[in-house]
Design brief:
The chain is α+β, with helices and mostly antiparallel strands. It has five helices and 19 strands.
Length: about 270
């Protein structure tokens, strides 16, 4: 199925949203919970899977939707279709601070591999499936497990990632070593594997993990500067404890510092 041809505009800097312009009868499919706003006369339908294979029977659709559970996503997705005779707009927001990355799948031979929670929305007709790692080391230590998302088709798709997103073009045989949590996605021509950091001091005291992700070209690689898991760890580490106390930030006085600066909680 040929994907619908959609126009779009991305707004914002750190908390971005993408506004998709739909011609009459055009549609866009999105993850549940990403919807922000839409014009009148846009119809919203909840469907199994991504709606890219309309001719499948109910068992085929259930199987296709069931595979999404392996990536930690919902069985259902939402399709927004312009039922009017004029152009209409619908917007989708990133779930956490970061960047929205537009992907024209025709520039990547119709396939792009990404981390499990990276997909935001796409033109109707684009397929969102799973990419299963056949390498045990990559599955256990690659940071993304054995399952990643595979976005396929000939239309536009939109990914989101935390922090700043940078795109690297790798030549044939060129190798890029990346923290395992910083990979947003890569084209299907890129070889993704892991490599042991090496060295006892690096392993025990380096604080950067035991493995690198190695990405070998040719192809395109997208990297994020701040994995959401790293951000969440920092937030949790500085969250108030169950007793209601917290660290005295920026002060060696700790709780006494809280009393002195007026932030005393009893």
């Amino acid at each position: 199925m040929k994907a619908h041809e959609i126009d779009y505009t991305i707004y914002g800097e750190e908390m971005q949203f993408v506004e998709v312009e739909l011609d009459p009868q055009e549609g866009v499919v999105a993850e549940a919970g990403s919807f922000m706003m839409m014009d009148d006369l846009i119809k919203m339908d909840t469907i199994f899977g991504d709606g890219s294979k309309q001719s499948e029977d109910i068992l085929g659709k259930l199987f296709s939707a069931g595979k999404r559970l392996l990536t930690g996503e919902s069985l259902f997705m939402t399709v927004f279709t312009n039922t009017s005779g004029n152009k209409r707009k619908v917007s989708f927001a990133s779930p956490y601070p970061g960047k929205i990355m537009p992907i024209d799948l025709t520039e990547f031979q119709g396939k792009f591999i990404c981390q499990k929670d990276a997909f935001l929305c796409a033109a109707k007709g684009v397929s969102i499936s799973i990419e299963f790692s056949k390498k045990l080391g990559r599955g256990f230590f690659g940071g993304e497990g054995f399952i990643m998302q595979r976005v396929e088709g000939d239309g536009m798709a939109f990914l989101h990632a935390s922090g700043t997103v940078v795109t690297k073009q790798l030549a044939a045989g060129e190798v890029l070593k990346v923290d395992t949590g910083c990979i947003v996605g890569f084209s299907s021509s890129v070889n993704y594997d892991i490599e042991f950091v090496g060295g006892i001091r690096n392993t025990i005291f380096g604080g950067e993990g035991v493995f690198f992700a190695t990405l070998t070209g040719p192809g395109t690689v997208a990297i994020q500067s701040l994995p959401f898991s790293r951000l969440a760890d920092r937030v949790l580490a500085n969250a108030p404890s169950q007793g209601g106390n917290r660290k005295g930030e920026g002060s060696v006085l700790g709780g006494l510092g809280d009393l002195l600066d007026g932030d005393n909680r009893f």
